[in-house]
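Thanks for the sequence, V.! I ran Bromodomain-containing protein 8 right away. Repeating your input here for the record:
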Amino acid sequence: MMATSLQERLKLKQYQVDTWTTREQLCLASAVMRSGDQNWVAVRRNIKMLTNETSRPPDWYSTKNCALQYAKLLERVDTPKRKRERGDGVNETPGEIVTKMLSKQRIEELRALETEERATYNHLRREIQQLDAGLLDQQLDTLWEQLVKEHAEEEEEERQHQQWLKEREEKITAIQQALKHQGPKAPVPPHKRKPKSQTSGGGQAASRRNSGLSETSSEVDSALDSPDLSEAASENLVSNKVNIFFDVHVISLKRILHGPPIIPKGIV
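Predicted structure:
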């Protein structure tokens, strides 16, 4: 019964509410390659700088969401077998495989987008030439109706976007309520530390080789369990410390310049 409840809780914690685009996934993989999978705050900061998205919800690039999205990406990659012993060269890490796979997908998307944009450009260019030549004077009403229709479609897209934001918040609230109703987490048994004499050099090397995905998984779990750290809050904390440090030095300088002379004890 306890195992079933823990599995249900884990599924709720790892439920993927948001679906990221290939561009966002590639930015995430690149940010992890740059900052590592042990610093999700830096990953969050880098991906916000790379994507420069303004239409996303505030928690879209949260540390928890970044960790969850990266874990989903790693599930799409098969763990490569090591071939160093056979002299086939150094194998790629799962992060490198994910980045290369997403790069190929993004290149295909950009090529398709370029073809579509080029066709739209050529169509508009022909229409402008025909308008300048007076060949579309009889179709001005039709062109105006088309513009009105496109404007209505943009308004409908904005309405659907607001509806999607509302449904997303409802899903997140439902998951949080379900996690609360399942009760507290099961206590984690303390880790037993092995004596150093039992671990040989070869065993340490083997454990390091086999810990590629396990370290990432543990870091993802810790990011999901820990409270989300707001970048603005951390920046405000640093700013407050700098201001306090500056104020203390200003007060000290004023006392030295304008206050009475300070006579050391024992001289009077």
